[in-house]
């Protein structure tokens, strides 16, 4: 990855269609454990009101991941709305297959989770073995405290809270 240029670019509402199109690949890959079927038009359902929040709500963002100038995936960030969780949520990280297993996803996730002053919530499906292996390798090597937490809203999700390092 040494000669590779990786950029994370926050999108605006004019790129909603691009994010919507990329999300179809993400939905396809997660359809096994999310038990999602395609709609009558052959596409996976996207909740448009939720999608629009990435460009309307404070601390929500839809970010495009570029590798050497080419679209390689996306990162969706939300402000957690779960009771008692004051954190940003790394809601969805998707890397196109061509760019996987090169350390790009790990580098982006690590950079995001260790930058700034926010605490972070990371959640992934217990049944998604690839995602579970990826996130465990990221979380196990973070220079910030990581704590497994139990949340009742979606029991099939494993949840972790990444907190700011305490300065002594």
TrEMBL record:
InterPro entries hit by this protein: Acyl_CoA_acyltransferase (IPR016181), GNAT_dom (IPR000182)
Keyword Membrane: no
Keyword Secreted: no
Domain N-acetyltransferase stretches: 17-156
Superkingdom classification of source: Bacteria
Pfam families: Acetyltransf_1 (PF00583)
GO molecular function: acyltransferase activity, transferring groups other than amino-acyl groups
Keyword tags: Transferase
Protein name, entry field: GNAT family N-acetyltransferase
Source organism of this protein record: Pseudomonas brenneri
Origin organism lineage: Bacteria, Pseudomonadati, Pseudomonadota, Gammaproteobacteria, Pseudomonadales
């Amino acid at each position: 990855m040494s000669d590779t240029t990786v950029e994370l670019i926050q999108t605006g509402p004019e790129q909603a269609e691009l994010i919507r199109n990329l999300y179809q690949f993400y939905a396809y890959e997660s359809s096994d454990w999310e038990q999602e079927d395609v709609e009558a038009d052959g596409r996976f359902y996207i909740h448009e009101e939720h999608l629009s929040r990435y460009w309307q709500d404070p601390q929500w963002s839809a970010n495009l991941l570029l590798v050497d100038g080419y679209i390689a995936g996306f990162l969706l960030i939300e402000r957690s709305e779960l009771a008692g969780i004051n954190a940003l949520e790394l809601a969805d990280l998707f890397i196109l297959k061509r760019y996987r297993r090169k350390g790009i996803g790990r580098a982006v996730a690590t950079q995001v989770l260790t930058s700034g002053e926010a605490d972070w919530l990371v959640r992934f499906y217990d049944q998604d073995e690839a995602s579970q292996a990826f996130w465990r390798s990221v979380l196990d090597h973070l220079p910030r405290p990581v704590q497994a937490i139990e949340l009742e809203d979606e029991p099939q999700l494993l949840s972790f809270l990444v907190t700011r390092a305490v300065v002594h």
